[in-house]
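Hey L., structure's done. Input below.
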Amino acid sequence: MTILQTFCQWIYDWPFSTALRESDDAFPFVETAHVLAIGLAAGSIVIVDLRLIGLIFRKEPATRIVEALLPWTWRGFALMLVTGLPLFAAEAVDLYKNPAFRLKLVLLGLAGLNALAFHVTTYRRARAWAPAGVPFAARAFAGMSIFLWSAVIVSGRLIAVFHVH
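Output:
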């Protein structure tokens, strides 16, 4: 058994993990909160992305949309983490073997890197965009973001399809 498998088994065996996994009420509640959190985070991100691409809120400065929605993105992300970690703990052994879960983690990492690259490069000059419009690089980051977050959601739903006991 690998170190990662041993770690997953250790988490899976925690009394808290067992209680959550075996609960008829708690697990579905936490899972529902996780899905809603993804909706909040990804939804606020996609609204920003659609603004950057120029499909919505064209008359509003992109910075205004980003500044209004970024706190909601962080709240959604925080709730995703707070609900996702217990869900992982409850099913760590099964998720270790699940290709859809592994893909979701990779896609989450790529989405995070895409957002980081956008904010440390292109977005630094966002206040100067108004007269010239949103630059191609920002639109490219936005398009990649929509693709990655859509893929995160799809791979998350596929976890159930590839669920192994």
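Residues 3-158 form one domain. The chain has one domain: 3-158.

-- N.
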